[in-house]
Design a protein that fits this description.
The protein is 36% helix and 23% strand. By secondary structure, it is an alpha/beta fold. It has two domains: 120 residues, Urease, subunit C, domain 1 (Roll); 289 residues, TIM Barrel. Strand 1 and strand 2 form a beta hairpin.
Length: 466
Amino acid sequence: MTAGGPVTANGPVTANGPVAPGQTMLALCGGTIVTSLDPPEVTDADLVLAGDRVLAAGTAPRGAVRRDATGTLIVPGAVCAHHHLYSALARGMPFRLAAPTDFTEILQRVWWRLDRALDEASIRASALSAGLEALLAGTTTIVDHHASPNAIDGSLDIIADALASLGLRCVLCYEVTDRDGSRRARAGIAENLRFLAANRPLARGMMGAHASFTMSDETLAACVDGARQAAVGIHIHVAEDAADNRDALARCGRTAAARLHRAGVITGQALLAHCVHVTGPEIELAGRAGATVVCNPRSNMNNAVGHSPFTLRSGRVALGTDGIGGDMIAESQAGFFRAREESLAVPPRWPLTRLAAGAAFAGRASGEPLLGTLQPGAPADLVILDYPAPAPLTAAGLAGHWIFGLTARCVRDVYVAGDRVVAGGQSTRLDAAALAAGSSAEAARLWARLEGIAPHTYAPGGRRSR
């Protein structure tokens, strides 16, 4: 596309067709634009938007509304490819039980108690708080994995409505599991299918599943059948801890990844979170299937479960926070340093390729193949960063600036589908102080309910622990 975009007798056009008559063109003028993360592409130009699309990176056309972006860095909005929004109100949560000694006990004593305490109000408050935090850090799409065993029906609508009120794009699912009984497992599948049938502008769905070690063969098969009917992939935790493999080996003589592959879970549409305890053949299996793997470095370090070998691989390997906030700049930097500690062969472009893979996945799930770029016709999801580069900022050097220079504090403005949802570091949709006060009060009520909930008794192998 030429500077300013091609023009016909009917006016400017995008990759999706002509700019509609009367449609406002917006030009973000004077910035340095990253039109692609992988491969890195950088240009000094005006970024022109037409409605919810990128029109061109070039010279602002006559008649465009101009907004000053002089001296800024304009980048595609980030995608968090694996989140647990419901964890937002757990920050600072009191804990009076014996400290967990392994990953299973972390689930039993913390997260599987918290999710049983969730109700509609706390689901909404969590989504709003975590969603706003993500936006303010430059994350424009969240792929969420939700669980609320005592508030399943309609839970995905609550999350979608909350995120829509902020202006966020999302891909949602409910976590199907047998740990709370077969009735709730069936309800989780129904919630996914109900949500998948809805038509929302910025929200899409998947079939959600917890992990091999909390799912019977029957429930796993039902998830696969539901996903096939809806023509979507399954979003599932895979071998996050060695307990997942021990359980699968006891069940069927196969590892967790092999069991899931045999069941039909690992497809080109699948989203496989963690994949820490996987073998070389299982890595190749996921690659051949075309599945997207999501590494969650900070969470894995926090839970002491190990380091995913996928961080050293190329291909469809994305990044998520696993509920540790929504700051993908910080996650990508932490992931790079953890991978670099493993091997000096890890290239500086590692964070950029991982973020691009997450955006590519979300784009496929949303029917937006250019998501995560600022190329003509791409969704106008972007972040304006106040980043006065202390050294030349070129395509070849972008990774160095990303790793060693950027922070969420640089975020000035955020656009999703052409709508400015953050301006000057503040939400344009809601009062952040009022939200924080309401969330704090809701967290206190959630914590009070949690006091009456005992540790979960489900353990790998379907056993009830003592």
